[in-house]
């Protein structure tokens, strides 16, 4: 009988996220992740097979938990639009500056060139857009947005505003990211505001 796991896969994936922040996915090594997780590199090989296997597990996990910031925001905010702003800020929590965003953009290179990574990235994008659309629908029901808003294209516009804000903010460093995110989302929604 093998030894029980003392470190969960989830803890290893959190360590992977920290290592990606420092090294990017291309510069990432199993040794770097092992140091972050307090494990031997052989443990990572045993669980994930390779660096690619670990990164695919990381991508799959990110897709699985894509809705968590939205669920958390729904519980914490009575207003659907406030929940939307908070959820998008939650998605960007790990981005403190250009270095962290560079790690995400490095992952985007994998997403664009490798079909297995692309599948996870596309599903993550769909789930995120669906969560945004759900909060926009709730905002219509709550009277925060006009009922004439076409929610599919509007959800896409909010998602594009979110991604664009991340890049522009990382390049310019103007003000806090949460504030920049709020302004971009509000601008996208302003034509549909109920008041």
TrEMBL record:
Domain called HTH tetR-type: residue spans: 6-66
Classification via Gene3D superfamilies: Tetracycline Repressor, domain 2
Residue ranges: DNA binding: 29-48
An example molecular function term from Gene Ontology annotations: DNA binding
Domain of life: Bacteria
InterPro entries: BetI_C, Homeodomain-like_sf, HTH_TetR, Tet_transcr_reg_TetR-rel_C_sf
Entry keywords, A to Z: DNA-binding, Repressor, Transcription, Transcription regulation
UniProt protein name: TetR family transcriptional regulator
Organism listed in the record: Nonomuraea aridisoli
């Amino acid at each position: 009988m093998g030894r029980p796991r003392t470190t969960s896969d989830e803890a290893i994936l959190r360590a992977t996220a920290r290592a990606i922040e420092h090294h990017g996915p291309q510069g990432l090594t199993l040794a770097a992740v092992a140091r972050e997780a307090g494990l031997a590199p052989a443990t990572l090989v045993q669980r994930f097979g390779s660096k690619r296997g670990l990164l695919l597990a990381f991508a799959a996990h990110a897709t699985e938990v894509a809705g968590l910031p939205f669920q958390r925001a729904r519980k914490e905010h009575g207003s659907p639009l406030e929940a939307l702003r908070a959820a998008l800020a939650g998605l960007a929590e790990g981005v403190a500056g250009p270095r962290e965003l560079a790690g995400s953009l490095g992952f985007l290179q994998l997403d664009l060139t490798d079909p297995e990574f692309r599948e996870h990235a596309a599903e993550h994008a769909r789930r995120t857009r669906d969560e945004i659309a759900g909060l926009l629908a709730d905002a219509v029901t709550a009277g925060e947005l006009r009922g004439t808003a076409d929610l599919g294209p509007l959800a896409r516009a909010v998602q594009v505003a979110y991604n664009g804000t991340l890049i522009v903010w990382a390049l310019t460093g103007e003000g806090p990211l949460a504030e920049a995110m709020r302004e971009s989302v509000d601008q996208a929604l302003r034509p549909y505001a109920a008041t």
